[in-house]
Every structure is written in structure tokens, then in C-alpha cells.
């Protein structure tokens, strides 16, 4: 590091960083026990947790989206709440509302499931736009305004939303503003043959016949640990070139011919934060371009809109973004 | 050629009827036609196949191209057979080399792709016309039946293809079941990768077999079309009727004449005085008004109104003319405008007009070019839209990748030594030099397709694919220290100098880069 730091503090910081890395890697190991064959997704979710962002999980049914979130909640000592989004869900069901108490003859605020550390918004695109919008304030500002009072939400706060890409009937696609608030959009894909074999072997052995058990996982992370991890991650040194690379990536989506809508500045910020978190997860002591490139796809894919011509051609956003990543030069001295 | 000897009924037919006649004609002489065709073509095809064993498509193409050469033989046979002089097989084959001589080159080059080939072939071969005479003949012939002749060729192409495919399918269906099992469509499609050449030659053979049946019919149809056209042009049918009349009457005419002379002996003068009346007879030419003069004056009168009203008008038209409102407009249009229009109507500005036309077209083409240039990024993105699979692009080696100069000439001759000497003063640069040299090595010696977008991690992954443990270990070590310095701002420890330089020497030797 170029700054002048006393040797004592530096070694202390290094030790702290190493411990943080070990903690993050311990969580990863635990999660990998529960969710088999989705290591990349686990890394992405942990990245978002350390970077203090929200995650949108997308995948066909039966890949273990909900299982992953439940396993994370199990490893994490904080509060966990779950909302199953349905077409008749109202905003007050999410945020909470005032209830008249007959005994005290007063209105009492009844806080909704939003006031938690880890929120699983299952099948988020099944609720109409107004209910989805109830999450906006909580996700961006970490507070909820109820009856004119702004109530802070406990830290850390992370929303894990899942959605199903194939079913279009009776779903409400998330608006851009909502999508932009998710730090990462993670796609779950089918596991490898070998891993699937492994998983089937384990599941069929478990007591609950059709799903993996998350009970035996140990709790390795408390709420304050997460905050500490986030703080340490945001302190990770980052070279100017790497920062520049992140910004260049985000900016190039705006002029890229295959995309009609580019990513906003939130994307650059998310890229940098994610890269720091990944570096910590990797056990590195500083951020390298690989960290940026590794999370670029997840950060950008929901913030851009593919050109209609390419869409008609049957191209996916991911393919276009991969082309883009292949063209933007990586930093070098 | 004696029309009375023709083996077919000569009368004007519709074009399709004429082609039908051709089919019948070829059917009548099918044995001779097919045998002679087969005798001529099969050896040539065999020879072509043997010579071009490695390129079956070329062999069949050449064979197809030589079709006019073979076509001459059936035409000769048909033309002889038409008038009852059907040659024997031996005679026909003996004639074939002689038939090839006239205008062979032309028929194999610029006339090869003519659609009315079979229709016009008799002009060269039977009439022996060439040059301007041939052109005139063609002009007359093609006035009517050109369309039908072209259709004949087009139908022929389709029929050939259909028969060819049919023969192949038949062959496929006749295969025993066990053999067929190995003939999945995929293996047929991937035939290029295996030794399936004989299969291609087999399909070529099918084509040749199809031609044995079809090509004589094609020639016969063209020939009958030609005959039909000439029958119409030269009134062969009428000539035939007259000839038959003459044959029938020659015997009776003598007796009739005798009888007439005997019966009318009193009026011989009248018989003698009766002249042949024709416009050119001297009696008429001696009149004050000769027939020539009267004809001219008639022509002159016919050319004048009201018989003909010729007028040549050259002017510019602006959209639809409105003849009804012309008179009304005449009053409103100012005189100068009329003058301008009349000036424009005259041919004086022809050059200027064409100049303006050229300019306008130039502007249009330029504008299109400008548009393409303006949206070249867009076009590039959409023309290259698919991330193409397996397409190997021979990309030029980047000289300036990663913001590092990877050109070999810019690197010192002895990397390890220069790095060692640099280490004391500027360890950062020394490490940079080593890393740069490593990339340059990968690029030039291992032909690794490195892109500017590749990060250090991706480069390492590619090195892993090379499966060279020593190189991988060294690269990992070097990359780690390079990243430490470049992104972590940590100076490498002193002992690293020896380690890295030795590693370099062990891997690439001292002067390896140059």
C-alpha cells in the first residue's frame, strides 16, 4: 500500500483481513454442503452479502433457489423472514401497518416481515407492481416509512428474491427501477452430471425424502460479523487502474450497439463493491481485475436491455455481455 | 432432303405438340439413340472419373459441360432417320468425330449456357451456317419459338434432377437392411470427413445413367421444335401438298391436254395469245403509268394522313399529363416559363442532363457510403451478431496488447540479465519486464490467442491448458508477484530476484526471447 501506515496497525489489519477471509470461506464451505453443484451461485450470494447488496436469483424450478437462501439463513445467526409473493399480496403485508389496540385504545404499529436481517422474497414476480414497489425504499435506504414515520431496518439487511424465468402467465415483470436496486442477478443453472449424482444420492438418503436437509449446518456467522466483514471488505485497497476498469465496463454498456439500455452509475458502484467482496472471499489482500470481471456478468445482466434485433435473433443478454467483456481491455501497466 | 420422304406428317403444330412429336420420334429410334449415347458417353465419364478421382464434383461438372459434344450424335441420327435414312449404329459412331468439327469451341464456351441450345443446334450442325448468316437465321427462328425452347431446357433441368434424385432414392431403398443401419443421415452428412468418395462417384454415375435416357429426348424435342418452326416459315406443308398434287396429276395432265387440243382445235390463237399476266410483264411496264410508279405513289399516299400520322415528340414530362386543362393552363403560364420549357425540351441540354444524372447518382451512392460509415459500429455488431462457433480467425498477433509492448524487438536480448540489472534500481520495472516477456513468449512461441480483454487470471487459465507444469508454476509465481506489485503496491522481496531470473533461465534459456 502506498499510504504510510504504522507497522503495528498494518499487521493488525492484515490479521483482521485474514480472519475475515477465513470466516467468509467457512460460510462458503457450509453452504456448499447444503447446496450441491452451485458453487458459482453460492459465491455470488456471499459476494452480495459481504458487499451489502441484494440478490435476485433466477432459475427454473427445482434448482434449489429457496434451499440456498434457507441454508444461508441457517448459517447466519441473524433474523430471517420469508415472504411468499402472491398476486393478492398487499404492500402493507410486506412493510407492516397500524393496528387499533382495544385495550390501550391506541393505534399500534405492527411491523411487517421486512424488519429482519435476511429477507427471502420468494417468487417476487408473482406480486403486482405496487407490492413490489413496497420493497424499493427498504432496499435502497434501509428504512420503511409507516404512518409517516421512517423506521430504520436492522443492519445488515439483505433481500434475496427469487423468480422463475419460464412462467410468464400471471407474473408481473420487475420494473427497471426495482431491478437496478438488486446488486446482483444470479442465474442458477443445472448442476454437472457428477454433482447431480452426488446430490441425488444425498437427498435420497435424507429423512425428508424430497429435499436436502439444512438442519445439520452450523451457525458460523452472527449479524455483527457480517457488518465487520462488510467494513473490512470496503477497506480493501484497490488500484486506480482496477477502479478505472470497472467504470469503463459500466460505461461501455451505454454505447454498446447491441444494447438499447446501458447500466447506470449504480452499476459501477456495485461492480467495485462486489469486486472488493470477491477479493475478500478469495482471500486476497487487494482487488485485481479478475475480481471485477468475475462479477461483471451478474452485476450488469439485469441493468441492461438487449437490442430488439438481437432479441429476435434469439441472443441472450449474457452472450452480448460476454462479447462486451471480451472487447473492453483489461488494465495493465 | 426430300420432304416427301419425311417419316413424320409435316404440318404446322403448336409448340407443345411439336415437342410431343420429338418425344415420339426419340421413342421410335430409342434403341439406336440410347445405345449410341451410352457408347459415346460412358467411356468419357469413366475416363473423367479416373482422372479426377479426388474431386468427384469437378468430374461430373466437366461431364455436364461437355453435353453439347455428345448431343451432336443423336441430332445426326434423328436428322437422318427423319427422312428414312436411319443409319446403323456403326455408321453413326463413325460419323461422330466428323460432326464435332463445326464451331465446337463456341458451343462449349459462350453458347454452352444458352437456354435454347437444343432448338438452335440444327442451325449449326444441319444447315452448316456460321457468322452473320447464322445470326440472321437465329433471329428469324427465335421470333416465335424461343420461349418454348427455353422452357424445354428449364423443364429438362428439373426432370434431370428429379430423375437423378429418384434413382438415388431407389438405390437407397434397395439396400439391404443391415447395410442401411450404418447409413444414418448424420454419417451421410459428415461424409466429408470420411472416405465416402465412392459414394459421390456413385451419384455421378446415376446422373450419367439418367442422361442416357433423357438427353436424346431433349435433343429430339429441340429438333422437332426446329422442324416445326421451319415448316411454318417455309410452308413445307403447302409445298408437300403441291408435290403430291403434281405426282397425282402428271399422268392425267397429258391426256387432258391432248383431249383439250383435240376438242378445241378452232381456237389455237386464243390459246397462244393468252399471256401470263404479272406486274412485271413487259406489256404493263410499257404503259405510261408503270406498275413501279403506281406502287411508289400508293406508298406515298399511304404514308400521308389520314392513313398515317407520324409525329416525333421529345419532351420532359412532369407526372401525369392533363390534356383537358392544357388550354386553361396556357393562359396562366407565363411566357418565360414556356420558353424555358421549350428550351429544356430541345435536345440541347442532353449533355448537361446526363451530367446532372451522374451527379445525382453520385450523391446517392455517396450518401449510402456515408451512412454505412456512420453506423459501422452498429453494422459490425449486427453483422457479427452470432458468437460464431468454431470459426477460427487467423488474428494478427497483437503487438501492443494489455497496454504492454509485446513486440519482440522492443524486449532486450537477455531478459534475465536485464531484469537482474534493473532490479537494483527499479524492481517494479524489472518485474514488469519479466511479465511482459512471459506474455510475449506465450504470444509468439505458444501461439496463444491473447486478447486485450484478458485478465491475468484468464491468461493463467490458458497456460493451464498448455499442460506444461514447469511453465505453469513459474507463470503463477510471476503473475502473483506482478499482481502484488501492480494492484497491491507491494514491492517484491529481494530474494525474489534470483528466484524469478533463475526460473526464467531454466524455462527459456538466456537468449530465448530474441
List keywords for this structure.
heterodimer; A: 333 residues; alpha/beta; 50% helix; B: 514 residues; mainly alpha; 69% helix
Structure explained in plain terms:
The complex is a heterodimer of chains A (333) and B (514). In chain A, 50% of the residues lie in helices and 15% in strands. The longest helix of chain A has 28 residues, at 7-34. Chain A is built from 13 helices and 11 strands. The model of chain A is unreliable at 1-6 (pLDDT under 50). The relative contact order of chain A is 0.15. In chain A, helix 11 runs antiparallel to helix 13. In chain A, strand 6 and strand 7 form a beta hairpin. In chain A, the strands form 4 sheets. Chain A has a 5-stranded parallel beta sheet with strand order 2-5-8-1-9. A two-stranded antiparallel sheet of chain A has the order 3-4. Chain A has a two-stranded antiparallel ribbon with strand order 6-7. Chain A has 333 residues and is of the alpha/beta class. Chain B is mostly helical and 514 residues long. Chain B has helices spanning 15-28, 30-51, 56-65, 67-82, 89-100, 104-108, 117-125, 131-173, 177-181, 185-189, 197-234, 236-263, 268-273, 282-285, 291-303, 326-332, 335-345, 350-374, 376-383, 415-425, 427-445, 456-466, 469-486, 495-508. In chain B, helix 2 crosses helix 11 (197-234), helix 3 packs parallel to helix 11 (197-234) and helix 20 (415-425) runs antiparallel to helix 24 (495-508). Residues 387-397 of chain B have low confidence and may be disordered. Classes of the chains: A alpha/beta (333), B mainly alpha (514). The A-B interface holds A 1-2, 237-239, 241-242, 256-258, 285-290, 293, 309-310, 313, 315, 319, 322-323, 325-333 and B 377-378, 380-382, 385-387, 402-404, 432, 451-458, 483-484, 486-490.
Amino acid at each position: 500500500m502506498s499510504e504510510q501506515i504504522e507497522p503495528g496497525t498494518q499487521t493488525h489489519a492484515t490479521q483482521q483481513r485474514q480472519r475475515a477471509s477465513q470466516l467468509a470461506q467457512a460460510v462458503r464451505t457450509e453452504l456448499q454442503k447444503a447446496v450441491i453443484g452451485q458453487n458459482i451461485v453460492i459465491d455470488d450470494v456471499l459476494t452480495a452479502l459481504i458487499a451489502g447488496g441484494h440478490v435476485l436469483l433466477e432459475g427454473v424450478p427445482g434448482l434449489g433457489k429457496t434451499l440456498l437462501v434457507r441454508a444461508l439463513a441457517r448459517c447466519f445467526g441473524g433474523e430471517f423472514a420469508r415472504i411468499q409473493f402472491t398476486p393478492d399480496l398487499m404492500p402493507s403485508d410486506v412493510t407492516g401497518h397500524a393496528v387499533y389496540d382495544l385495550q390501550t385504545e391506541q393505534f399500534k404499529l405492527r411491523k411487517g416481515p421486512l424488519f429482519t436481517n435476511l429477507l427471502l422474497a420468494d417468487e417476487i414476480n408473482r406480486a403486482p407492481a405496487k407490492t413490489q414497489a413496497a420493497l424499493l425504499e427498504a432496499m435502497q435506504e434501509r428504512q420503511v416509512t409507516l404512518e409517516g414515520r421512517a423506521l430504520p431496518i436492522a443492519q445488515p439487511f439483505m433481500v434475496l428474491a427469487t423468480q422463475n424465468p419460464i412462467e410468464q402467465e400471471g407474473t408481473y415483470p420487475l420494473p427497471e427501477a426495482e431491478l437496478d436496486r438488486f446488486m446482483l442477478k444470479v442465474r442458477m443453472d443445472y448442476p454437472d452430471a457428477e454433482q447431480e449424482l452426488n446430490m441425488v444420492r444425498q437427498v435420497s438418503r435424507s429423512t425428508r425424502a424430497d429435499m436436502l436437509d439444512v438442519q445439520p449446518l452450523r451457525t458460523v456467522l452472527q449479524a455483527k460479523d457480517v457488518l465487520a466483514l462488510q467494513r473490512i471488505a470496503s477497506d480493501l485497497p484497490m488500484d486506480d487502474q482496477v477502479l478505472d476498469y470497472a467504470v469503463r465496463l459500466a460505461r461501455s454498456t451505454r454505447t454498446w450497439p447491441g444494447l438499447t439500455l446501458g447500466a447506470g452509475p449504480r452499476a459501477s458502484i456495485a461492480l467495485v463493491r462486489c469486486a472488493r467482496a470477491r477479493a475478500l472471499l478469495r482471500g486476497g489482500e487487494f482487488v485485481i481485475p479478475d475480481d471485477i470481471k468475475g462479477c461483471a456478468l451478474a452485476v450488469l445482466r439485469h441493468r441492461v436491455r438487449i437490442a430488439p434485433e438481437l432479441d429476435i435473433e434469439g441472443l441472450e443478454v449474457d452472450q452480448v455481455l460476454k462479447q462486451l467483456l471480451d472487447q473492453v481491455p483489461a488494465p495493465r501497466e | 432432303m426430300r420432304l416427301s420422304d419425311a417419316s413424320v406428317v409435316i404440318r404446322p403444330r403448336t409448340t407443345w405438340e411439336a415437342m410431343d412429336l420429338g418425344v415420339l420420334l426419340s421413342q421410335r429410334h430409342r434403341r439406336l439413340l440410347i445405345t449410341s449415347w451410352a457408347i459415346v458417353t460412358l467411356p468419357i465419364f469413366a475416363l473423367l472419373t479416373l482422372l479426377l478421382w479426388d474431386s468427384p464434383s469437378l468430374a461430373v461438372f466437366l461431364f455436364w459441360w461437355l453435353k453439347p459434344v455428345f448431343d451432336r450424335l443423336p441430332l445426326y441420327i434423328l436428322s437422318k432417320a427423319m427422312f428414312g435414312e436411319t443409319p446403323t449404329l456403326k455408321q453413326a459412331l463413325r460419323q461422330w468425330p466428323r460432326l464435332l468439327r463445326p464451331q465446337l469451341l463456341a458451343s462449349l464456351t459462350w453458347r454452352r449456357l444458352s437456354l435454347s441450345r437444343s432448338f438452335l443446334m440444327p442451325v449449326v450442325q444441319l444447315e452448316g451456317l456460321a457468322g452473320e448468316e447464322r445470326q440472321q437465321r437465329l433471329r428469324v427462328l427465335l421470333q416465335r419459338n424461343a420461349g418454348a425452347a427455353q422452357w424445354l431446357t428449364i423443364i429438362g433441368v428439373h426432370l434431370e434432377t428429379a430423375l437423378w434424385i429418384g434413382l438415388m432414392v431407389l438405390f437407397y431403398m434397395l439396400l439391404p437392411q443391415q447395410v442401411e443401419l450404418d447409413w444414418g443421415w448424420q454419417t451421410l452428412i459428415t461424409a466429408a470427413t470420411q472416405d465416402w468418395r465412392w459414394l459421390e462417384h456413385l451419384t455421378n454415375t446415376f446422373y450419367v445413367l439418367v442422361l442416357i435416357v433423357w438427353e436424346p429426348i431433349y435433343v429430339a424435342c429441340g429438333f422437332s421444335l426446329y422442324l416445326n418452326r421451319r415448316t411454318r416459315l417455309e410452308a413445307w406443308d403447302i409445298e408437300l401438298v403441291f408435290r403430291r398434287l403434281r405426282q397425282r396429276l402428271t399422268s392425267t395432265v397429258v391426256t387432258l391436254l391432248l383431249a383439250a387440243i383435240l376438242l378445241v382445235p378452232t381456237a389455237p390463237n386464243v390459246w397462244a395469245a393468252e399471256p401470263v399476266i404479272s406486274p412485271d410483264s413487259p406489256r404493263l411496264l410499257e404503259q405510261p403509268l408503270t406498275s413501279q410508279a403506281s406502287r411508289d405513289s400508293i406508298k406515298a399516299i399511304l404514308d400521308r394522313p389520314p392513313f398515317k400520322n407520324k409525329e416525333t415528340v421529345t419532351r420532359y414530362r412532369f407526372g401525369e399529363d392533363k390534356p383537358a386543362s392544357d388550354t386553361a393552363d396556357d393562359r396562366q403560364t407565363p411566357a418565360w416559363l414556356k420558353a424555358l420549357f421549350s428550351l429544356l425540351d430541345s435536345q440541347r441540354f442532353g449533355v448537361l442532363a446526363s451530367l446532372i444524372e451522374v451527379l445525382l447518382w453520385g450523391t446517392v451512392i455517396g450518401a449510402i457510403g456515408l451512412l454505412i460509415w456512420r453506423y459501422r459500429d452498429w453494422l459490425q455488431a449486427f453483422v457479427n451478431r452470432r458468437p460464431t462457433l468454431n470459426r477460427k480467425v487467423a488474428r494478427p498477433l497483437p503487438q501492443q496488447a494489455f497496454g504492454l509492448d509485446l513486440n519482440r524487438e522492443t524486449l532486450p536480448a537477455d531478459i534475465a540479465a536485464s531484469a537482474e540489472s534493473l532490479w537494483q534500481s527499479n524492481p517494479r520495472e524489472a518485474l514488469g519486464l519479466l511479465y511482459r516477456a512471459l506474455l510475449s513468449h506465450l504470444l509468439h512461441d505458444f501461439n496463444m490467442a491473447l486478447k486485450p480483454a484478458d485478465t491475468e487470471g484468464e491468461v493463467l487459465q490458458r497456460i493451464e491448458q498448455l499442460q506444461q507444469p514447469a511453465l505453469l508454476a513459474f507463470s503463477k509465481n510471476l503473475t502473483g508477484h506482478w499482481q502484488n506489485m501492480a494492484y497491491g503496491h507491494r514491492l517484491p522481496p529481494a530474494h525474489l530476484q534470483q528466484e524469478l531470473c533463475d526460473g526464467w533461465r531454466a524455462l527459456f534459456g538466456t537468449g530465448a526471447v530474441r
